[in-house]
Each structure stands twice: as C-alpha cells, then as structure tokens.
C-alpha cells in the first residue's frame, strides 16, 4: 500500500479546514460525494481512483468536511479514511457475505418499523446518513420502501400503541438525526403519548460526523420529552473524537441523555489492543460509556474488514489487562433470529 502514497508519510499531518459558521444541513449538502475529490483533498495517489470508483458505484462515497479534517493527508492507512474510502474489493462476493445479513426483511410488521427483540422496536426515522461507512450492514437496505411520510407513520404508531409489552422506541436509520428537527419533534411527541413507552433510544453517528448537528433545535425537543433518553453513538477510533465532538456530547448529556457507544471491530481500523484501549479511554473523557464491540455483520462488499471471531476474542481478552471493567465494551455478534445480541 505504501508505494501508492504520493507524499512521504513523514509529511503527513492532520489538516484543519475552516467550516465557518455553516449549519449542519449546509455541511451535509457540501459533503464530498465523489472519489476523485476525496483523493485530491487528501492528496492520495491517483492509483487509488480506479478501485475507489468501483466501490463508489456500489455504495456512494459520502464524507463531510467536519470528518475529513480529522483524516491525515496522504495516508491511505489512516483509520478514519479506511472507514470511508471506497475500494475495488467491495465488488468481491465471497461465500457467506450477503445483502441482508441480519435478515431484517422478516421483521417489518409496519412500514419503517423493525421488531426483532422483546420490549423494543426500531423505527427507521431517516433513510439518509451524514457519512457512508463502507462496512455498513445496511448498505443494501431498501430505504425507499421504508421511509414513511407522516400519514404513513400511523401504521407503525398504531402497532406500538397496541403492544403494551413495548417499552422502548429506538430511532434508527440511516441516521435518525439526518431527519429535520421538525419531523423528529413530531415523531417524539407521538411516541411520548403512548403510555407504556418509557424510553427513547437514538442510534446515531451524526454528532460524531458533524458535531454541529447537536444544535439548539435538537436539544430543545430532546430535553423536553418525558421519555428517558439514551443516545448510542457509533465511534470506532479515538481519532474520531475531537473537541467539537466532546462539546456536542456535553450538550447531549445536559439535555438529559445517557451516552453509550457501539463500535465495530474492523481490520486495519481498530484491530489492536492498544487502539481499542485508547478508544475506551477517549470515550470516557468525552462522557461516553463503551457499550458494544460488534464483530462485523457479513454484508456483501465489506469482507476485507472482517476480523475472525477467535482473533476478536483474543484481542478483547488482552484488553482486560489494560482497562477497568467499566471501560470494557461487550464483544457481541448479531445472529438473525436470536432474541438478543450474542456475546462472544
Ligand atoms: S452512519 Fe451508520 S447507518 Fe449510516 S452508513 Fe454509517 S454505519 Fe451505516
């Protein structure tokens, strides 16, 4: 890989671009969405372009400026870049890697709603993401069939009203925070009118990718709901947590949210004990508790990120030598049809 880098590694350094005072929506609309611009902005060798184009045609590249500025120049091995750069390998179709690895298609009783586990349901609040992670298990998800309008949400809301065993609604996506605050405030208002619902969980990467997403409008509806709030962030490497992310997390906590993190164990991103230990330490500094470390779901296009279970177990066993118990993420795999995540 090294020979493909046009600038010597010693010259590589983090770069800081000003993103001015633009809103999160403007930042999202200006995200980099083509491999050529990504390679040029990061001064990568043009040799990467052909493969990047192949991956991009399978799953569009999307990297906002606020995330880009945390990536080192001219370093194809940068752990944040590895998560977002499309590669030719994504066209490979090894046995066992499929388009719907969690078989979610079997658990959709209403448009926009996935009910897999007892007591909680997942609502697909937005089909969009602020970043396209190459290992995403929903990279082939049919979002166009599962993005309800307000009127269409009624079916999902009725399902929730009629099942008193459901105590928690999980906003998911895409990234649920890619929806507008007007839409989210409306949806949360509908949810809190259901008496047996106690908790609102939000699975999001947006406060990490574009920290300005955590603005007054978001904090307003979040702080005012009667539901207990849990925000589950998705951070895979300590370098993803800059000061802007820390500030966004502080604001989420002040709005009453408990902050947890789930990571995915990824080859050439975070597959070392030192990297995972640094991630847990940095998460805690930002007020976030490590929750899950997922082995990757076998989604087509992402096999090159795979870390075998035995290696994952050995890494986590070693991690216990470095971290107190409360900073240890739980190593899990999601197995279709099981009633919960499966510890490894
Ligand atoms: S933010 Fe989450 S849902 Fe969106 S591409 Fe990344 S992993 Fe997938």
Automatic annotation (TrEMBL):
Keyword Iron tagged: yes
UniProt KW keywords: 4Fe-4S, Iron, Iron-sulfur, Isomerase, Metal-binding, Pyridoxal phosphate, S-adenosyl-L-methionine
Domain Radical SAM core: 115-338
Iron-sulfur keyword on record: yes
Reactions listed under catalytic activity: L-lysine = D-beta-lysine
Cofactor: [4Fe-4S] cluster; pyridoxal 5'-phosphate
Gene3D superfamilies: Aldolase class I (3.20.20.70)
Family note: Belongs to the radical SAM superfamily. KamA family.
Protein's name in the database: L-lysine 2,3-aminomutase
Classification lineage: Bacteria, Pseudomonadati, Pseudomonadota, Gammaproteobacteria, Oceanospirillales
């Amino acid at each position: 890989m090294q020979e493909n880098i046009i600038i010597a590694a010693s010259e590589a350094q983090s770069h800081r671009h000003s993103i001015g005072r633009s809103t999160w929506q403007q930042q999202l609309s200006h995200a980099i969405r083509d491999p050529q611009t990504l390679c040029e902005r990061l001064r990568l060798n043009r040799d990467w372009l052909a493969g990047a184009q192949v991956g991009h045609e399978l799953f569009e590249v999307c990297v906002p400026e606020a995330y880009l500025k945390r990536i080192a120049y001219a370093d194809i091995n940068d752990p944040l870049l590895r998560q977002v750069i499309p590669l030719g390998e994504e066209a490979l179709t090894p046995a066992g890697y499929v388009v719907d690895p969690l078989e979610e298609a079997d658990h959709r009783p209403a448009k926009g709603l996935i009910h897999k586990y007892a007591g909680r349901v997942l609502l697909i609040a937005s089909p969009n993401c602020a970043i396209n992670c190459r290992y995403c298990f929903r990279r082939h998800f049919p979002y166009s069939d599962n993005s309800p309008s307000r009127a269409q949400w009624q079916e999902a809301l009725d399902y929730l009203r009629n099942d008193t065993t459901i105590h928690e609604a999980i906003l998911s996506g895409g990234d649920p925070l890619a929806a507008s605050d007007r839409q989210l405030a409306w949806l949360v208002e509908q949810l809190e009118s259901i008496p047996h619902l106690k908790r609102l969980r939000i699975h999001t990467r947006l406060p990490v990718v574009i920290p300005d997403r955590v603005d007054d409008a978001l904090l307003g509806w979040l702080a005012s709901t009667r539901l207990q709030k849990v925000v589950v962030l998705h951070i895979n490497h300590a370098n993803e947590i800059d000061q802007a992310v820390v500030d966004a997390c502080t604001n989420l906590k002040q709005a009453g949210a408990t902050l947890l993190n789930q990571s995915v164990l990824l080859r050439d991103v975070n597959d070392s004990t030192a990297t995972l230990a640094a991630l847990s330490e940095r998460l805690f500094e930002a007020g976030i508790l490590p929750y899950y470390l997922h082995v990757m779901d076998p989604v087509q296009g992402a096999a090159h990120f795979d870390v075998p279970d035995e290696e994952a177990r050995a890494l986590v066993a070693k991690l216990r030598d470095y971290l107190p118990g409360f900073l240890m993420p739980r190593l899990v795999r999601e197995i279709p049809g099981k009633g919960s995540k499966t510890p490894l």
